[in-house]
Structure formats: structure tokens, C-alpha cells
Amino acid sequence: MQRILDPAQIEGLTARSVPRLLAPDPARLYARRAARLRALAAQDSLGGYLGFAAAIAAAQHEAAAAIAPALPDPAALARAREHGMPPLPAQGLARGAEWRAALQCIVGELARSTAFPPAVAAVCARLRDAAPAALEAMATRLLAADGTDPDPAAAPFVAAALQVYWSALAARLDVAAFAPTAPSATCPACGSAPVASIVKSAAPSSGYRYLHCALCATEWHRVRVECTACGATQGVAYQSIEGGPAAIRAESCDGCRRYRKIFYAEHDPEVEPLADDLASIALDLLLADAGFARASANPLLWQPPG
Ligand code: FE
Ligand code: FE
Fold it and tell me: Closest ligand to 211 CA?
């Protein structure tokens, strides 16, 4: 007997054969991101900015090798699993001091470079000399992600250190245990918003779309042609720059008027969600002109002090 499956049933089959969650690998993640940013910087009018982001990612690689934070205790992890809560919540997890060690490593690396404007060295010096309590307050404010950060010049450095810390934790997590059972708009590991999504080209995830966490870099499966902000399946459209790379589009939603970028590894195997998002600001301008708002921010976007 032949049966015809509807899309929901096909999605159900997907759940059994395709990993729902992909853990980050900090030993490769930041080096790969730095290389991608350097390559994009060489061919882009935003080169200076992307070069700065590449230096941050390279420093994150050093920092990731230097810290080994401990996961929450097994009872806390079991409780999170039981209640369907992220086990490493960006808001609420008792952060270890390791993230501040990562920050000092990053600002130390950046301060050594003479390639950047003096404002960069000034922010590095300020963060190097800041009291732990002040840094903790900055981190808490940043992780609240409410768009009210009063210190945007320091934000990418603090965000970069928090990424190193959270990705180190997520890498140690048994991620399969936290795979979402329903489509999730936020990271199943840490509860943060995704920076963008990527359609994979390598087995076993080939052809499947994953959201990439802006904080811990965990990736989680989400069906294609579905608004990643509000879940709508109607009114989803794909926009790209005419004559631009085939690997980059924006997935916009007529319902909530928001968008996120979607990258296609089949068109460019080097594509990296955070790096390529930063390097495709022309697409953000196009979407802003069309009246769409970004669904969430890129943590490495640096706003120099006014
Ligand atoms: Fe996360
Ligand atoms: Fe939407």
C-alpha cells in the first residue's frame, strides 16, 4: 500500500534521521570564523570593519583554548531537561569567572595590534582596568538583550568573551538530551536568539536548515520556509542583492515584518553565519528600505564611541 505523506509527517520522519541539535566545537569555530572574516575583508568595502571582527575572532580562538568552565551540576541539568528549559540560560546562569579571563585575553590580543583606530585601544584599556563587579554588570546588561546597552563601544568585546564562555559550556553539554520537541525561536542550550540560519550541505544534515545561536553557537534544526521569528509559514519571502552571491538571502515575513538572513552552504561551503551576516550589510539596508526589521542583532557589530 502506498501512502502519501503531508509536510508535517515528513518533518516527523526528519526528526528521527537528522540531528536536531549540533554542538559547537570551539577549537575550530573561532579559527574558521576568523579565516572567513579575513577572506571577506579582502574583497569588501567594509574591509576595515571585517578585519577588526577577524581580529576579535582570532583572539576568541586563543581565549577558547585557555578556559575550561564547569557545567552546572547534574541535578540542575536534569531539572532543566525535565522542564524543557535551556540548561545554560544566558539570563540566570551563575557565570564563572572564566568569561572574564576570556575577556582579558581578547582585549590583550587586540591592544597589541596597531592596525585599528585609537578608539579600539582605548576601549581595550578601559576593559582591562575595569573592576570585576563592573564587568559583571556589563555582562548582565548585555545578556538582557533589550537593546538598551549604554556602552556600545565595549559591547562587542564583552559579547565576544561571553561567546567563548558559553560555547565552551555548550561544547561539554550532552546536546542530544536538550533537542527541542517543537520548533524553537531561541537556542535550546542557552535561550538566546539566533544570529542567522544556514542550510547545510554535508551529511547527515545536507539540505536541512539550522539556526545558529548568537551566543553559544549551538545550531538547531528548523524547517525551511518558516519565519524564524514568529513561526508563520505564509508570507515568507526571500530577498537578495541583484547580482550578489547566491549563498546569501534574507528570509522576510509579511506577518511580523521581520527578517533573518539565511545562508546556503551548497553555493559556498565556506559560508559562516556570524561572519557572513556581518559582511552583508547591503542586504540589511535593502530590507530596511522595504520596511523590514532585523529579528535580532549581530553581537560583533561595533559602534565606535560617538
Ligand atoms: Fe545558545
Ligand atoms: Fe514572522
Answer: 1
- pLDDT average, residue stretch 186-195: 96
CA of 180 from ligand 2 middle (Å) equals: 20
Q: 50 near 58, Cβ under 8 Å? A: no
Amino acid occupying residue 160: A
Q: Exposed, middle or buried, 222 (CB in 10 Å: 0-12/13-18/19+)? A: buried
Q: How many whole angstroms from 2 Cα to the centroid of ligand 2?
A: 36
Are 150 and 174 contacting, i.e. CB atoms less than 8 angstroms apart? Answer: no
**47-99 residue pLDDT tens:** 788 999 999 999 999 999 999 999 999 999 999 999 999 999 999 999 999 99
Mean per-residue pLDDT of the chain: 91
Q: Which ligand is nearest to the CA of 233?
A: 2
| The model's pTM | 0.93
Q: Which CATH superfamily is domain 25-177 in?
A: FdhE-like domain (3.90.1670.10)
- Asked whether the beta carbons of 48 and 42 are under 8 A apart, the reply is no
Going from the Cα of 41 to the center of ligand 2, the distance in angstroms, rounded, reads 32
Give the DSSP per-residue string, 18-50: S-SEE---HHHHHHHHHHHHHHHHHTSTTHHHH
Q: Which ligand is nearest to the CA of 255?
A: 2
Contact 167, 216 (CB under 8 A): yes
Domain with CATH 3.90.1670.10 in the chain: 25-177
The closest of 124, 118, 158, 152 to 139, measured between CA atoms, is 158
Query: How does strand 209-213 pair with strand 194-199?
Result: antiparallel
pLDDT of 306 reads 45
